[in-house]
What does this fold into?
Amino acid sequence: MEDNIKDNVTEETKEEVVSRNFIEQIIDEDLKEGKHKEICTRFPPEPNGYLHIGHAKSILLNYGLAQEYGGKFNMRFDDTNPTKEKEEFVNSILEDIKWLGADWEDRLYFASDYFPQMYEAAITLIKKGKAYVCDLTADEIREYRGTLTEPGKNSPYRERSVEENLKLFEEMKDGKYADGEKVLRAKIDMASPNMNMRDPVIYRVAHIAHHRTGDQWCIYPMYDFAHPIEDAIEGVTHSICTLEFEDHRPLYDWVVNEVGYDPKPRQIEFAKLYLTNIVTGKRYIKKLVEEGIVDGWDDPRLVSIAGLRRRGFTPSSIQKFVDLCGVSKSNSAVDYAMLEYCIREDLKMDAPRVMAILDPIKLIIDNYPEGQIEELEIDNNVENPELGKRMVPFGRELYIEREDFMEVPPKKYRRLYPGNEVRLMNAYFVTCTDVEKDADGNIIAVHCTYDPESRGGNSPDGRKVRGTIHWVEANSAISATVRLYENIVDEEKGVYNPEDGSLNLNPNSLTTCTDCKLEPSLKTAKAYDSFQFVRNGFFCVDSKDSSPENPVFNRIVSLKSSYKLPTQQ
Ligand code: ATP
Ligand code: MG
It folds into this structure.
């Protein structure tokens, strides 16, 4: 299985080197034609929420292209709509992008810094007779716009003179009008088959303070007008966005041309990244956060970048995931298992493999000397000798997983049961002799004897044991909380409830195991450190709740998967 995956990956990688994705082909062509000497891309989030895995794709795509062509990557907040934007989001977004490794150097921009240029651009359009102030209400504008099958009607204010438009627009800026009383519209074509070209609103009155410009402005530009201007001002050459903006491209080009920018930025659309059965929408994540269903935007069950980081994903695992997804022009969803595959690959060799018991039960070795502790030298990662070795204490009383013992075993059960001999990983062979119960019949300890000749877990006489179980020495064990996760939504029911669009939550998305027993080497583990807990999966120290007194670990991913990489495209 593992080998299978490896083969596929090598194939994928080979293919990628040969075939350029469609965006690279466009850039190659533009460079060949001499349109640009150097390319410039940007990532333009609206600071109205935390970033998620879909944004990571956009970030790494834009940054990756800039790197590949020796160009520039700009970081720009598209903060032209003051209603939903917050400083908190600005900071989280910057932190997430830095963590992913995308470097904007000294080019951190805010669209709101360009409000004066946008205002000037609007004046330019008015002077050219390409924009007018319109007094229709929002409802009337909608009505006049027509439908996909019927052309729209011209606004009665469309033929205002340049002078009148200049005066009215200035008055809009000076706060003479209430919200919604007047708007500035581009004068394009009310009969255009593209609804976006039917005299779109480009400026509106909104008496709201902006998180950066305060009360300086009471008119704000609309996205479709602002975005091409932002790109042009910064010298962005390739403005990469998602498919829903395809129909907006003619308007993007119209603004660039009519305002008269040169060189001209170019918009290119690609398909959004979706994960099957996974909540990515900002709106939904926000609701989960606000309703307290999750522990903030960085809850490890979320695919927000902050959530993935806290869960224990690494920047390189996300890069690998994005690379495997590729860039496409048609929407499709990717399996979450692919993301899991990427983090397993990333941690397999680098994470130390340690022993941790999630559901402990005592194992007492009756013939082991009381009070004796021996230190066993154990590989930190058998597949990666570079990680070295560590000393792990072994003694008479250990913890093992409750499920590794059965009083009455089913057929083919190879672990501990009365009379059976197993290997304690890296330690000794033990044979189960007895089980100890409380008055209610609950098992409180399992008894066994060990073979002193089998030290290191090696058979002394060629004798075979069929099971190997892990363990932790009882006196030196650290108690910890371990969190296990499942999808936040119920996959069988589907993500959304068709009746009201609410999420079908999975009641088992978080399992908290308290009083787990970990080997003492984990005492020095710090936030974000990752480990393989043998047989149980990959785990990461929680960055929010863990402390030396009460360590908390999050399961990043289990060890096994039936996942096969899909053949791409
Ligand atoms: P909103 O609905 O608030 O606009 P958004 O997810 O589009 O949400 P933005 O801040 O506008 O958020 O997105 C910033 C950039 O990330 C945009 O260029 C957008 O195209 C890109 N992006 C957003 N979601 C995805 C996704 N799922 N896959 C790839 N890119 C995405
Ligand atoms: Mg958006």
